[in-house]
Amino acid sequence: MADKHYDINYLQNSRRLLVSLKEASYNYFEKINTGTIIDLGCGAGKDVIELAKIIGSGARVIGVDHDPVMVNQGKEDAKELDNVEFVLSEAYPLPFENESIAGLRTERVIQHLKEPQKVSDDIYRILKPGSPFVIIETDWHSLTFYTEFVDVQQKVNAYLTDAKINNGFAARKLTAYLTQSKFTDIKLNIHPFILNTLEDANQYLWVEKMVQEAAENGYITKQEQAQFIAALQQADENGYFACSINLVVASCVK
C-alpha cells in the first residue's frame, strides 16, 4: 500500500461526513451469520467494530491494515469484542486461504494502490463463491469549488489525480477491475457530498493543504494559490461557499 497522506484524526473527521454511507455499506453483510468478513484497509478499526455488532457472534470480522499504529488502536478499541481480530498486512498478497472468506469490504483503499488489479484478483481468490465484495471510493476528479478560478481548480484536480493519489481515477475504474477479476452482479452508485463552509472543507478534505501542495509541486503558481484561497475565503465569509465531491459505491459477488 502507498505512503499515506492521512492520519487517525483525518479518518475520524471524515467518518463523521460518511457515516450514513458507511452504514449503508454494512447492509451487504448483515445476513452473514457464519464465517469471516474482512475490512481491508481498516485503519483504526471503527468499521470493523460496527460490522461485528451487526453480524453478531456467529461470524467474525477481521480488520486488515498495513499500519501498526492503526492496527494497535483497533485492537485496543475492540478488546471487549470476541468476534473481532486485526491482522497487520499489505493489501497484496492477502494472508488468507483460497475461498475462505464470506465477504469483504474496503473503503478508500483502491486509490492508494499501485497495482489495484492484483489486489482485486487476490480478493476474488480468497472469497467463497457467492460472497459479497463492496468498495467505497473517492472520485477525486469530481472535486468542485464554485469560484471563478476554474483553470486553477482543474490544475489542483490534476495534482490530486496525477501526483498526490497513486490511483487518482480509481473510482472510475472500479467496474473495469471487477470485470477483469470475473466478479458478477456488479452495481455502481454515486453519492455526492456537499460542504458549505471552508472549515468543513479543510477538516474533511484538507483543501487548503492540498492547494498549497499543488503550488509547492509546480501544478499552480504561488499567485494562483493566493487568488484561489482568497476566493474560497471570500465565498466563506459571504455565506456562499460550496464544495462538492462524489463517493462511489461498487458492489459485486464472486
From TrEMBL:
Record Pfam families: Methyltransf_31
Taxonomic superkingdom: Bacteria
Positions of the Methyltransferase domain: 36-141
Organism: Mucilaginibacter antarcticus
Native organism taxonomy: Bacteria, Pseudomonadati, Bacteroidota, Sphingobacteriia, Sphingobacteriales
Biological processes, Gene Ontology terms: methylation
Keywords: Methyltransferase, Transferase
Keyword Protease listed: no
UniProt protein name: Methyltransferase domain-containing protein
InterPro entries named among the record's database cross-references: Methyltranfer_dom (IPR025714), SAM-dependent_MTases_sf (IPR029063)
